[in-house]
Structure formats: structure tokens, C-alpha cells
Design a protein that fits this description.
Keywords: Signal. There is one protein chain. Helix 7 crosses helix 10 and helix 11 packs antiparallel against helix 12. This protein folds into two domains: about 170 residues, Nuclear Transport Factor 2, Chain: A (Roll), CATH 3.10.450.50; about 110 residues, no CATH class. Strand 3 and strand 4 form a beta hairpin. By secondary structure, the protein is α+β, with helices and mostly antiparallel strands. The structure holds 2-acetamido-2-deoxy-beta-D-glucopyranose (NAG) (5 copies). One 2-acetamido-2-deoxy-beta-D-glucopyranose binds next to helix 3.
């Protein structure tokens, strides 16, 4: 009898103070809020004021000063590594979509569906970004197209700011295909994307940042022949490409990029057209840093890195192999 009464009392107490929350360390809440705040700044249009400050010469961005260490560095599979504050914040906020043709989507909400943090310096999370039509002038404004998933580990400095991250975005090829409403496996799509990258690169990368110059060896006939297209047999594809409206620099760029593999958004750390589409978005934010990545050599980013380096070069990036284990584990 007495035992039962004590048990009843314990059950009552734990209803008032749920055990799960009583056992949750203080760092759990602090780190959860830090990650939630970071992701909240990727929700359109919250990223815009951050991006506007990305090229501050003093790298002071007050809104995120308590979220990221000035020395933050990390990687996002399979996009690349971002080895300082500037490129890290350009990754987090510069790649967050802004509404553009044809679908006008951006992140409209985020949900931290998985989260754990047992010590102040480490947390693991998974986020789902709701991706919806975000331009209020569109008739389907608010319509949800899909979600983007990102999982991984975070490391925090003594002030609770992120100083290292190791994250992963699965199935980015499918995501890109849905939000851009195209099938990247089609040759015409691949060529049109290469053309778009060239027009974008020539617009964004100018002056000392110019990547593709006029070349006397490039003429339209040679470019079409280089594509293994027959001007008589492949007229429909050739007319869809509308290469005649490219200027000399754009045509030289197209001559070079159309010879490279299109690649896939699931492996962007590669000498591909797909890699350059992503780095073009970053070049729009920060041409000085990112224009070489859209250029002919890939600038050390859009280059073919071996599997072993892409996934396992932890020590140069994180200083040690066990960065994301709680100390003494
Ligand atoms: C997210 O950001 C918006 C706009 O700055 C703010 O109003 C909102 O409170 C933030 N939400 C969270 C969960 O941080
Ligand atoms: C850094 O740059 C920002 C924006 O240009 C400015 O508001 C801030 O005062 C600068 N900080 C210092 C310490 O110079
Ligand atoms: C950032 O790195 C520099 C050079 O490695 C170091 O002197 C500085 O203390 C670091 N700052 C923080 C906040 O960790
Ligand atoms: C060009 O036309 C030929 C003959 O119709 C066809 O076999 C070939 O697949 C076409 N090339 C492309 C890239 O569509
Ligand atoms: C980052 O990746 C580049 C390749 O893009 C590689 O050369 C470099 O060593 C990596 N840096 C670190 C610190 O891991």
C-alpha cells in the first residue's frame, strides 16, 4: 500500500516536471537556440541584410556576431569546405534561395526535426527547410514545392559561438531539379544552364575579376561543331540554344564549359558546370573571392577533388579528428 502511494507521488511529480526536460543539460537549450537562430537567418528575406554585409572589410556583422566565431570553418558535403568566417557566412546565407524565375521559391520555414547536445561544445542536428513560392506577386504565393534536408555536427567555442561545422545535404540534385522545374539529365537543359552560367559570369565577374575574355579562335560555327551538332540535322536544338545572342566573352566561356561534364548537384566539389552554377550564386555576393571558381580552371573549388580528400581531410579543417565528440568521450 505504502509503496503504491509513493509510486503514485513520483508519477505525479514527474508529470509536473517532465523527466526528459529535467535531465536536459543547460547547454542543450543554448546550443539549440544558436542553431535555430542561424537557420532562421536563412528564411527569406532574413538573409538579405546579412548578405549585404558579407563583404564588409572588417567582417563585422552584428546580427550574427554571437552565432559564429570570427574563425569559423567547416564543410558541407558535397558542396565544399568554407575555411573562414567570410566564406562560411556566404555559404550559409548567400546560398539560401531568393525568389527567381521560373518557380520563385525560397525557404519559408525551418524545422529542427532532430537535435542532440550532451556537452557545451558539441551538438548534432537535422533541419528541414520548407521551400515555398516566396514572391508575393505570384498567384501561387505560399505554395510549398518541397523541402531541403541538412544534417550534421556543430562545435561551439567557450562563448557558445559555432567555430566548426561538418554538415551534409542529401539528394541536392533532386532538390535543384524540383525548385528549378527542369530535368538536368536532358542535354538541352545542360547546354542552356552552361549558357546561363556564362552570361551570369560575364555580368558578375568584370574588370580584374573577368574570367572569360574574347578569343579570336572562338566562332559560332566552331562552337556548334565542338558540340558535335550538325547545323543541318540538329536545327531545332541549335535554335533553342540561341547562341547568336552571346557576346564574344560569353561565347568563349560557352565553348569551354560545354566541353566540361555537366556533373551533378550531388557532387559539387568537381570540375563541372553544376559546380559553377553554385559558385556563380556566391560570386554575385562576393565576386572577388568566388569569380575564379566559375572560371575555366575552377579556382581550386570547381576542381576534381579525390573522394578521400573530400570526405576525410578532417585535420586541416578541424584541427583534430575527434572535434565533434564531447571532451573525454
Ligand atoms: C526569426 O526571425 C524573425 C525575423 O527576424 C523573428 O521575428 C523571429 O522571432 C525569429 N524566430 C526565431 C524562432 O528565432
Ligand atoms: C565594421 O563595418 C560596419 C559596416 O560597414 C560598421 O558599421 C562598423 O562600425 C565597422 N566596425 C569597425 C570596428 O570598424
Ligand atoms: C582566431 O585565430 C587567430 C589566429 O589563429 C587567433 O589568434 C585567435 O585567438 C582566434 N580567435 C578566436 C576567437 O578563436
Ligand atoms: C543531331 O541529329 C542527329 C540526326 O538526326 C541525331 O542522331 C543526333 O542525336 C542529334 N544530336 C543531338 C545532340 O540532339
Ligand atoms: C579545402 O578544400 C580545398 C579544395 O577545395 C583543399 O585544397 C584544402 O586543403 C581544404 N582546406 C582545408 C583546411 O581542409
Amino acid at each position: 500500500m505504502r509503496f503504491q502511494r509513493i509510486l503514485g507521488f513520483v508519477i505525479l511529480i514527474s508529470a509536473w516536471f517532465p523527466l526528459s526536460s529535467a535531465r536536459r543539460p543547460a547547454c542543450y537549450t543554448r546550443n539549440f537556440n544558436t542553431i535555430a537562430s542561424i537557420y532562421n537567418f536563412t528564411i527569406y528575406p532574413n538573409q538579405l541584410p546579412i548578405i549585404a554585409q558579407a563583404t564588409n572589410s572588417n567582417l563585422s556583422i552584428p546580427q550574427i556576431a554571437n552565432l559564429f566565431s570570427p574563425n569559423v570553418t567547416g564543410r558541407v558535403q558535397d558542396i565544399g569546405n568554407f575555411t573562414d568566417f567570410r566564406t562560411s557566412i556566404e555559404y550559409f546565407f548567400g546560398l539560401a534561395p531568393v525568389p527567381r524565375a521560373p518557380t520563385y521559391v525560397a525557404f519559408s520555414a525551418f524545422d529542427l526535426t532532430q537535435f542532440s547536445s550532451d556537452c557545451p561544445s558539441v551538438a548534432a542536428s537535422t533541419v528541414y527547410f520548407t521551400t515555398a513560392v516566396a514572391d508575393p506577386s505570384r498567384p501561387d504565393f505560399g505554395k510549398v514545392l518541397t523541402y531541403l534536408k541538412q544534417s550534421g555536427f556543430w562545435h561551439f567555442d567557450e562563448q557558445g559561438r559555432v567555430d566548426y561545422y561538418d554538415l551534409w545535404i542529401p539528394a541536392l540534385q533532386d532538390f535543384s531539379s524540383i525548385i528549378n522545374a527542369v530535368d538536368y539529365d536532358q542535354r538541352i537543359v545542360q547546354l542552356l544552364v552552361a549558357k546561363q552560367v556564362c552570361q551570369g559570369a560575364q555580368k558578375v565577374c568584370t574588370g580584374a575579376n573577368t574570367q572569360y575574355k574574347k578569343s579570336i579562335e572562338t566562332d559560332l560555327g566552331a562552337v556548334i561543331a565542338g558540340l558535335k551538332l550538325d547545323p543541318l540535322l540538329n536545327t531545332s536544338l541549335i535554335s533553342q540554344l540561341e547562341l547568336t545572342n552571346l557576346n564574344d566573352g560569353e561565347l568563349n566561356c560557352f565553348a569551354q564549359l560545354s566541353k566540361k561534364p555537366f556533373g551533378t548537384f550531388d557532387k559539387l566539389w568537381a570540375d563541372s558546370v553544376a559546380c559553377r552554377t553554385v559558385h556563380l550564386i556566391l560570386a554575385e555576393v562576393d565576386p572577388g573571392v568566388h569569380c575564379p571558381h566559375v572560371g575555366p580552371t575552377g579556382g581550386g573549388k570547381c576542381v576534381d577533388y579525390p573522394y578521400n580528400n573530400r570526405l576525410f581531410d578532417d585535420i586541416p579543417l578541424f584541427g583534430e579528428k575527434y572535434r565533434f565528440r564531447c571532451p573525454h568521450d
